[in-house]
């Protein structure tokens, strides 16, 4: 069906907003959910986006849960460190983490305020992006070449946790209920899980 103009969207708009305004992710997620939603809507209106890509910052919560303080440093020193972590325990702590809970409240506020007008896409990042967050980009690239077996364990860990996180985010968006299914698309792998 023809539309009056080509739909426009800014993927990864949260990072764009942070750079544009000088705010940090932590400051955004510390805001009252309704005020944060108003701020997010205002920022997306600057470019006339037809979609709000709400970055869950779940990877930051995950890294903090895995023990690297504020989430700015890699959680793993080497790929084999992944064996020190239990997927279920890390997942439970991640989805109860203050950053993740604050994002959930902001997502609900966005849905309430503009959910009938715009697509709100809540999304974590893909497995290799999260592996880079857990290990660091250069160590990730080197380990993929030098320690492929250990890296498969890190990738499997990332896929397992983030496929579950995507289900939670999709339920918060009311895109699916307990009887529906969710397709998680990870750009890194270019395939559906």
Task: Kindly summarize this structure in a few lines.
The chain is mainly alpha-helical and 193 residues long.
Structure description:
By secondary structure, the chain is mainly alpha-helical. Helices cover 55% and strands 7% of the residues. It contains nine helices and four strands. It is globular, with a radius of gyration of 17 Å. The C terminus is likely disordered.
Summarize this structure as a short list of keywords or feature phrases.
disordered C terminus; mainly alpha; 193 residues; two-stranded antiparallel ribbon; 4 strands; two-stranded parallel sheet; 9 helices
Mean pLDDT, all residues: 79
User: Largest sheet at a glance?
Assistant: 2 strands, parallel
Structural class: mainly alpha
Helix fraction, binned, reads 55-70%
Number of helices: 9
Termini distance? 30 Å
- The parts where pLDDT drops under 50 for at least 5 residues are 175-193
Question: Strand-residue fraction?
Answer: 5-15%
Cα gyration radius (Å): 17 Å
Shape assignment: globular
> What sequence of helices (H) and strands (E) makes up the elements?
HHHEHHHEHHHEE
Q: How many beta-strand segments? A: 4
Order of neighbouring strands in the sheet with most strands: 1-2
């Amino acid at each position: 069906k023809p539309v009056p103009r080509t739909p426009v969207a800014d993927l990864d708009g949260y990072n764009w907003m942070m750079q544009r305004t000088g705010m940090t992710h932590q400051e955004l997620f510390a805001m009252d959910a309704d005020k944060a939603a108003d701020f997010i809507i205002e920022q997306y209106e600057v470019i006339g986006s037809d979609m709000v890509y709400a970055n869950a910052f779940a990877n930051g919560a995950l890294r903090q849960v895995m023990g690297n303080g504020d989430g700015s440093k890699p959680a793993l020193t080497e790929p084999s460190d992944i064996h020190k972590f239990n997927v279920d325990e890390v997942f439970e702590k991640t989805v109860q983490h203050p950053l993740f809970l604050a994002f959930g409240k902001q997502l609900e506020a966005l849905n309430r305020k503009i959910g009938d007008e715009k697509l709100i896409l809540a999304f974590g990042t893909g497995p290799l992006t999260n592996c880079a967050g857990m290990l660091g980009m250069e160590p990730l690239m080197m380990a993929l070449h030098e320690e492929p077996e250990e890296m498969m364990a890190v990738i499997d860990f990332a896929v397992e946790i983030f496929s579950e996180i995507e289900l939670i985010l999709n339920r918060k968006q009311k895109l699916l209920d307990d009887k529906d299914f969710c397709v998680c698309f990870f750009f890194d792998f270019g395939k559906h899980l």
